[in-house]
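Re: weekly structure request thread

Next one in the queue (161 aa):
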Amino acid sequence: MVPAISFVGHHNSGKTTLLVKVIRHLTLWNIRTAVIKHSQHGFDLPVEKDSERFYQAGSGLVYASSPKMSLRYRRERIERNLSDIYDEVKADADLVITEGYKTGPYPKIEVVRQATGDLLPDLPNLIGRVSDRQVNDGIPCFGFDQDLEIARFIVDRFRLL
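Done, posted below.
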């Protein structure tokens, strides 16, 4: 089974910025990652390229393919289940990372900044934290500049190397 880990935290806490740095380390170590990002508020696509223009025009599915990359935009009637998305992406990864999914089943690293809110209450499966303040509750805590250490923590936790 491909391991999965979730990075959770308040809006604008720095989850994406941190994950970009962590993923760069994992990639350098030849660990293939798949990322599933949850967006509670939806998202907008730019209308700069042909594929996005087809989607914005109303197409239910747009699949753009090239020799080195493919993209798929698909309209959904209801939000897809996390386990279904995991099943779809796991074959292409050594590690699945989710951003969001606070109540999901996977081990979690909480990302918290004083400026964006308090610790999240009652997080199931909390294994680590990234914070700009000291938290002494027995959970391993990293600073935002410790992306290499966070990547190593994940590698060690899931025995990826």
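The longest strand covers residues 126-131. The beta strands are 4-8, 33-37, 61-65, 70-74, 95-99, 108-112, 126-131, 141-142.
Next request, please.
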